[in-house]
Amino acid sequence: TADTVIIATGAAAKRLDIPGTGDGPNGFWQRGVSACAVCDGAIMAKDTQSFVIGGGDAACEEALYLTKFASEVHLVVRRDALRASVVMANRVKEHPKIQIHWNSNVKEVTGGDRMEKLILHSASGEDVEMAAGS
Question: In sequence order, which residues have a C-beta less than 8 Å from that of residue 40 and are 6 or more positions away?
Answer without folding.
Answer: 30, 34
